[in-house]
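User: Write out your own:

AI:
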Amino acid sequence: MIRNLALFCASCLLGVMTITAHAQTSIPDSPDAPDLPRYHGRISVAPDAPYFVDAEGRGFLVIGQNDGVPWPGLNALIDRAAPDSTTAYVRDLRAHGITVSRVMIEYAQEPHTYLENPVGTFSPSMVQFWDDFIALAEQEGLYLLLTPYDTFWQFRNWEAYPYSAAMGGPCPTTRAWLTEQSCIDAHKARWRFIIERWGGSDAIFAWDIMNEIELWWEAPVDAIDAYITEMATYIRDLEMTLYGTTHLLTASSAVGVPEGLLGRQIYNHPALDFANTHLYMGDIGDPQNTIGAAPIMAGGVVLSRAAIRDNRPYFDSESGPINDWIVDPAFDKTYHHHMSWAHLAAGGAGSGMRWPYTNPHYLLPELRDNLLGLARFAATIDWGRFNAVNVQNKILGSRRELIDFAISDGSTAVVWLLLDTRLDETVSFADTSLTIRDVVNPGTYQVEYWDTYSGRVLLTEPLTIAGESVTLILPSVAAPLADLALIIRPSS
């Protein structure tokens, strides 16, 4: 991806100076909100649903964000400068319902966060960081989606990067990264070090074999296929030899919805367990308002789910305002809120994972609050048994400014409704009807109406479905709301 380098560098420098000031936030008060679950053991793909489960079979969603070793939340752990600050930060993430942080094991913007320098010599400072951070994640119940290389910054800094032949490394050119055996063997040596040292940890949600695997190296698709196959086999064999079990594997794409041969590798490669892409498309990457990103996000999720042939999970593992960083926190909170709910209600396996593009450069407290509301809502659904499909085209609202998003497995449905304030600035669902057709089977249900920001139920009503369709009259609530979430579930 192309990032605003000037802002990015400034944010990293500012982050170093603001570690403790931004480590912890207050938890929005909502005494009647559902409790957040604690997960146990390794995460695996649910056997009969496009989501995940923990070792006890509890449904698991990827609710989270991208993080970085030199960013304000984590950099206090480098050289153990202020470890209590990082502990407070991780506890705050978990208190806001964040289940997974995606982190690059090496951050290649500056040499002090290289994992190897030169290749084959592992930095004691970085090794200690990961020893401490993985132990902290285990302690606090935070799972980690880890990728071994920061391909953006290593490409930008290639001539000075340790893997470059110019620096005595094994790769004669950037194009050799995925194709030259000397490079691949060096990758395997890094993987061996990582897996031998940290691969026994249940806090590792999954390995992302290569970040944005198609973007920087000009590798043909057949070479990408061969690389994924070879590296996935190597990783699994090594983990099985050392631990008798393996972690989940994936490979990320910079193309939001890859097609053709690349799409086959990202969505359906037999060596991978789930699919993830980076949805920077349209109004997501360049938001002009807070509304437009939501349908773009949902569209990316729907198209991605449709491309998957075996019902494996899909989620967006990196997205945000890449083209023009948002400076207004209120705008950013609403934009992020809408994207997160659209991702979940379109069938993504969680919230989607924001790349910050903020100053300081990490997930701001306002955005963590968004994820808390979503996490509280999600805690009431058994995702491990929720074999959901998108049913957005089976819902019709009575107002043209009503944008709907919905998934269902025939017995439970999740619906998210967003008022398009570009068309009408009125923020009320009063006198709005919603007709649903063939979304859930005939039977007796209850409909829960949720405040998406606080993550609490506003109202519960009985519902009987006798035929193919039923019309709901949405409730009028005291507070003005621009969005509303519904759960339709069988009566207990």
Confidence is low (pLDDT under 50) at residues 1-23. The longest helix spans residues 221-243.
